[in-house]
Amino acid sequence: MTDTPDIELVETDEEYVHVRFRDPDRYDEIRTPDWATEPAESVSEGSEVRTGRVEGSDDWEVTSVLIDKHVGEGKAKQQARQIVAKIES
Q1: Position 1 pLDDT exceeds 80
Q2: What is the pTM of this model?
Q3: Residue 81 falls within a domain, yes or no?
């Protein structure tokens, strides 16, 4: 089991609060996988998870979680941590 990474950045746009856990520049590819919908929405309806494939590896990690804007930044950070813990445990 891995530790939940620290939050690096929180930004709010028109639809989502983007909670970034890892620098997207360290990945060869970034996706929003369908399999992550269930664990994400079990914590926060309408949320999305972005994953990245580590450069030179077949390993995938959560890069960021997008939480519906109406939740607010404080609660979005809490929910994003819960989502990452579910996925990476």
Answers
A1: no
A2: 0.91
A3: yes
